[in-house]
Design goal:
Layout: E1 10-12, H1 14-22, E2 29-31, E3 36-38, E4 42-44, E5 47-49, H2 67-76, H3 98-120, H4 132-137, H5 160-166, H6 176-191, H7 201-220, H8 238-244, H9 252-264, H10 274-280, H11 283-288, H12 292-305, H13 311-317, H14 321-336, H15 343-356, H16 367-390, H17 398-417, H18 425-451, H19 456-493
Antiparallel strand pairs: 1-5, 2-5, 3-4
Helix pairs in contact: 2-7, 3-6, 3-9, 6-13, 7-9, 7-16, 9-14, 12-14, 14-16, 15-16, 16-18, 17-19, 18-19
Length: 494
Amino acid sequence: MESSGERSRIQVSQATADLLTEAGLSRWIIPRSMKIHVKGKGEMQTYWLCKSSRPVKPKGGDLISDMETLEEGAETETSSERGGEEESGFLGVGGMNKIERLVEWNVEVLTCLLEQIVGSRGGVVNQVLSLSHVEHSIGSSGKTVLEEFTPIIPLKRFDPEELEQRQGTNTADIGEEAKLQLRSYISTIAGMYPGNAFHNFEHASHVTASVKKLLARIVLVGEGNGLAVSDPTESVDLVDLAEHSYGITSDPLTQFAVVFSSIIHDVDHPGVPNAQLVKEDTRCAQIYKKSIAEQKSVDIAWDMLMSDEYAALRACIYQTEDDLRRFRQLVVNTVMATDIVDRELQALRKARWETAFSNDDAAAEPLADNVEIEDRKATIVIEHLIQASDVAHTMQHWQIYKKWNERFFMECYSAYVEGRAECDPSTNWYKEEIGFFDFYVIPLARKLESCGVFGASSHEYLNYATANRDEWIRKGEALVEQFLATFKEESLIS
């Protein structure tokens, strides 16, 4: 093991990791993304010892309350820090590089949500062997991921009495085995993200941070969305909240599925648009035809989750076939929504939004129709939530927008230099960015505002988008020149 170690890091064996886990210290270890070869023993899974300097989070805390940890760190970064390892804002865990810090953060995010799922069903976590045939049949029916898309996902409905009983209910521990499997899963997913300038694991984590922020604004019910409470210490009634959010907040599995989707949505991204993959006639393009990168990400992440080594993790996510199928459908719809380039898909989403949020009075409809109306609204809100999060940098502070815009430029220009793009992106980058704000970002921010469930965030996103557009008009042309010069300078160095 000595020969496979790294400077200033402690590597431990599976046996040591097991002892730490038994002692309740699983948070101290992170599995290496690749197994190592040990003479006389063959391939072995080893772990990095990363004792956290943070106190352990108390159980039962707000599952979204640590959102600011990642966001505040991101907001203090500047483009000059791109690619470095010295950012201090994400986790503050000594001995870990950036990717490992992000892995740990994502693990904590999902753990909190899993604790709510398990808590909502009374702490029940049983191995669901009876579902194995269903697990293996999903995704192998001959349909592509895109063909599984449905315009309305039936969300789980809870009786008002059950919601009242859950008011203030503590979360349930998911167990050490599930925690280890979750960490292993996210570590492996992180390793499957290529070293693209933009579409990388840091981008996936940034999207996840935005998803959590928007979900938090639903869950916490801030000022201006119709359910604010007069006493800030008073909790909002879950029955009222479920009705206000079209049922999104009443089911923790729905929230988990959306956050999970944000983490895996760009796995193994090729660093070029889908249109380029079609032009190159890649194997994936032949299989999927459209939304190629998005469908591939779902297939990769889902197949891995269904493997035997993640059985305990799956048992925390779902216990019934209905929950399994709803989880799958939410993942499919959420990830497919991140294909914002396909015009046909965009037109369909626009039509479904107009249908869902027309001025027709739902109260005049029969009860069964009302449920379908609520599900339609929830489905389209979730899709727009992930779309806004996927381009969240355009609706945040100028420095964040500039940093991620530069990264996307670097990725696109690199593809051009490698012969995987016909046009020099620097030629029209300035004008196309203005068009992106005018025809996609700002209309999307207005939709977040008009659907009425995100409270102050919808105003914040729209204000930042407008301000960034104005700032880009003033500084964009000079910045494109700067981006180009930086690319050429870094190319000479490398």
